[in-house]
Amino acid sequence: MKAVLKKEKGVGFVIEDIPTPSIGDDEILVKVEVASICGTDVHIYEWNDWAQNRIKPPIVVGHEFAGVVVEKGREVKRINVGDFVSAETHIYCNHCDMCLMNHREVCRNLKILGVDIDGAFAEYVKIPERVAWVNPKEIPHKFASIQEPLGNAVDTVLAEDISGKTVLITGAGPIGLLAIAVLRVFGATKIIASDLSNYHLEIAKKVGADVVVNPLEQNIHDVVLAETHGLGVDVSLEMSGSKSALRDALKLTKYLGRVSLLGLFDKSVDVDLTNDVIFKKLRIYGITGRRIFETWEIVSSLLSSKRLDVSPIITHEFKLEEVDKGIKLMKSHQSGKILLYP
Fold first, then answer.
1. How far apart are CA 63 and CA 66, in angstroms?
2. Domains of the chain: which residue ranges?
3. Phi/psi of residue 309, nearest 5 degrees
4. What are 242-287's pLDDT values in tens digits?
5. Would you call 163 exposed, middle or buried from its count of C-beta atoms within 10 A (0-12, 13-18, 19+)?
6. Which of 9, 126, 215, 233 yields a CA-CA distance of 20 to 30 A from 95?
7. What is the CATH number of domain 2-146+310-341?
8. 190-237 per-position pLDDT tens digit
9. pLDDT tens-digit series, residues 293-323
10. Mean pLDDT score across all residues of the chain
């Protein structure tokens, strides 16, 4: 089969023909119909510090996808050949303390598809039955492929009730844009989006942002305080992994407010905990992965009911062989979500 490989240490991917995976008794083989590029894939391509410490080449990359089951192991009971599925990419052990307490997203023995084991930028991918999600027929196939990152956005937004809240999003990349759309559906009353890319900010306006700000062109503190009568926002969602954005989010969240952190930081961050968190009694949530499978149920319901329209966020579609083009476009910050077709 055709596959995108991180074949060796260093920058870039290669496309090669490799054997189609052989499945185990508890696994299914999925013919990939559509996949999408994640920021994690960009980090692996760039071979940044995180990738160097985590990735062990050669490995098939990619983890966001949707496809049709073509084979199943003899112990597989819930999934059938012909099912249209996506996958929870956090492959959990199901026996550690976190799994037993139904926090499988932080399994102590976690493996991630396309990071620790062969992934979905290929014609076929094998996954354990336990992480397969059968997609409702009402969901367009291209939308089904982005449910995994949409789940990130949903958990970031819904860490607490969001209805009637003013919200600042720092980082309007693809997941930040998905979060804006989710905020609108769940009743946020004012959404302020911040990003360094005017391309991203134009999409943000399309999916529900009331106010957009580019910190390179405007003073974000002046904008947010003007929009909130000098009080700051009820909720901040930090989606960028930028140190300065985190500091902005903490300072611009009002007393007794909430901050959800999804963006990943390369190194430790200095923040004024005393004045910006403790004295303000902020509540801070660290978000990783998705609640398995509670968040998937919400995501699928939003898409199948058509309450949530993610079409403006999908900006480019390429053949799998054009993965380099997609990666470079993402790095330029001139795209939303990019889809790949094997």
1. 10
2. 2-146+310-341, 152-286
3. -110, 110
4. 999 999 999 999 999 999 999 999 889 999 999 999 999 999 999 9
5. exposed
6. 126
7. 3.90.180.10
8. 999 999 999 999 999 999 999 999 999 999 999 999 999 999 999 999
9. 999 999 999 999 999 999 999 999 999 999 9
10. 97
10 Å CB burial of residue 15 (0-12, 13-18, 19+) is middle
Confidence of residue 158 (pLDDT cuts 50, 70, 90): very high
Q: What is the CATH number of domain 152-286?
A: 3.40.50.720
Catalytic residue numbers, as ranges = 40, 43
DSSP state of 222: H
- Rounded CA gap, 237 and 174, in Å? 14
Q: Residue ranges of the alpha helices (H) in 8-115? A: 39-46, 49-54, 97-100
Whether the CB-CB separation of 195 and 171 falls below 8 Å is answered with yes
Q: What are 18's two structure tokens?
A: 């490799």
d(CA 120, CA 16): 14
Question: Which amino acid is located at 134 in the chain?
Answer: V
Annotate 287-319 with DSSP letters as a single string: --S--TTHHHHHHHHHHHTT-S--GGGEEEEEE
CA distances from 3 to 21, 31, 90 (A): 11, 12, 21
Confidence grade of residue 57 (pLDDT, cut at 50, 70, 90): very high
What phi and psi values does residue 43 have, to the nearest 5 degrees? -60, -40
| pLDDT at residue 6, as a whole number | 98
